[in-house]
Amino acid sequence: MNKQSFLFLFLLGVVTFSTAQKKKITLEEIFGGEFRTEYMDVLRSMNNGTQYTILNTSRSPRSSSLDKYDYETLQKVETIVASSDAVPYFSSYSFSDDESQVLLATEVEPIFRRSRLGIYYVYDIASKELVKISEVKIQEPTLSPDGSKVAYVLDNDLYVMDLAERTTKQVTTDGNKGTIINGVTDWVYEEEFGFVRAFEWNSDGSKIAFLRFDETEVPHFSMDVYGTELYPSQHEFKYPKAGEKNSIVTLHMFDVASGAISNVDLDGAYYIPRIKWMNNPDHLSVQTMNRHQNNLKLYDVNAKDNSVSVLLEETDAAYVDIDDDLTFLADDSFIWTSEADGYNHLYLYGRYGKLKNQITEGPWEVTSYYGYDEKHDRIFYQSVENGSINRGVYSISSKGKKKKALSTDEGTNSASFSSDFTYYINTYSSADMPYRFTLHDASNGKLVKEIKDNSELLNKLEGYEIAPKEFSTININGYDLNMYMMKPADFDPNKKYPLFMFQYSGPGSQQVANRWMGTRDYWHQVLVSEGYIVACVDGRGTGLKGRYFKKLTQKELGKYEVEDQIDAAKKLSELSYIDEDRTGIWGWSYGGFMSTNCILKGNDTFEMAIAVAPVTSWRFYDTIYTERYMQTPQENPTGYDDNSPFNYPELLKGKYLLVHGSGDDNVHVQNTMRMIEALVQANKQFDWAIYPDKNHGIYGGNTSLHLYTKLTNFVKENL
């Protein structure tokens, strides 16, 4: 044996020994919390700009405290309030504008994805007095700017409590389940426009603007709740499916002093997705949209007489996005985000809606707007200008000059600024680095102090087989699509490996991102350790590559996205180390819709697919989301039906697993039941599982462990 051969065998032995010493991640560890990541909980900057507050909680013994910290030293200054015999355990908090009062949430229970019921208290910091707002559970309590009153919703009606007088006034009286909602949103607004509280105090606390939802004509939806009793019960609510009637939404003004309610005429607006008071207490901004969501108007409502004028109007051949980036400056000029030039950017408008200038510009997207430091004329934002899979934090003047890169390490950076924009806390992670929290000087991004990292988790993972995400692009159908691939620790390019693809693919989404692992990433590590190659490709219609790339799937959901996944799988199968006869794909929700379509329309490419909580016909999904991309079924029937998988079950050749929660209020189990029936009538064999009473996330108790065990076994047995 020559020296080179001996050296090769020695090194091979070292690698083999090293690999053998590494443990494999197990499902029990994932869902037992073994790899739990530490975060900074509920951090808020105080008005003085030099301090911030954090909610600290403990499970055993069960306790909570609201603590104040100093930015410069990161040391705790004081405990503002803590749970005790006199103060119940609280799980969230908010301050009045002057920070004299704190609203504490206790006994909180979820309604839908964002809505909550709870028992709430107001704690006076100076007097240490605690006031219970209501003996029964309420929604969305909000302190007036001076902390003297609190408005909330109970049983679909709006109430205002005077804290000094301990008196409560019922503002509306027509609230009724299934017909009229005042001050909070209906199901579809909550889910698709992303907000629950539909009332706002003006800056001096003299008026409350609120939305009223008349859902009388919205079709009724019900689902069985099996529970543990002898007879199941029914969960009922109004759910407008594509093409059906929505709530009639109207805007109203409540004058606190007089108790009078007045109506605001918005010229037949179909949707009212945002209301926001300007700094001037007599002016309210209102965003409205048509049903197709391709025409947005920003109104100025004069609260003195409810007169209305248009500040700006945006139209798009596809749709206009709604966000929370609208910011009014001291003189009520405002900052706005728009895709007008083909990418999402910041714009500055004058008080009466005249465009002053475009602030950011370039072939990249602004992903978050953080705020405006008027004293130094600095706008802070997050963007993907350092690569579409990364996020960086930047500052720029309102004229679009003096740009500074603040936190731009390759990976994902996000910032939480002090109220005076002296400091920011940066949250950083990447595909190989768990979350790290650091304090920075906002003027230049300079590191001031390390706050917290996840070094303990990182050290723990050193003892495990962890496959890195190899980021790249793959040219499919004329586009360079973002991709990552994960290979086994003992990867041998001369071997053949099965390929298992993961995707979501929904409009504007992103799965190929340089950020730390979530639960599904850990599960992918389990599969990679079993000898599978896992890959993910963000196809056409996904986000952060400009308006055109995102919106070219308009009116054809499931067409181009499916073509891209099939063609990507074919191209990856050309690699020497991929077994082209063992290709699988999976996804959840929109991703389940995609994986189902892929194994049907790509039945010569995919041998296996898993669909969890999939849409199987967009006719079954809600109005706001579906019609934004598809218009209505009456207008676009072929767009709906040509890519609805239960319309062509006869195409199934490979192994298919279908999973749903019976209590899914979002993507109803009806989707899966119709898919099952179609496959049965086509005499196609497949596997399926229904999780009783579980919602769209399919979790609770041992549910996640059971689900992922089922998914793992299905992959190992069929791919």
TrEMBL record:
It comes from Flagellimonas abyssi. This is S9 family peptidase. Coiled coil: none annotated. It holds the Pfam family DPPIV_N. Residues 525-719 form the Peptidase S9 prolyl oligopeptidase catalytic domain. Residues 96-435 form the Dipeptidylpeptidase IV N-terminal domain. The keyword Transferase does not apply. Keywords: Hydrolase, Protease.
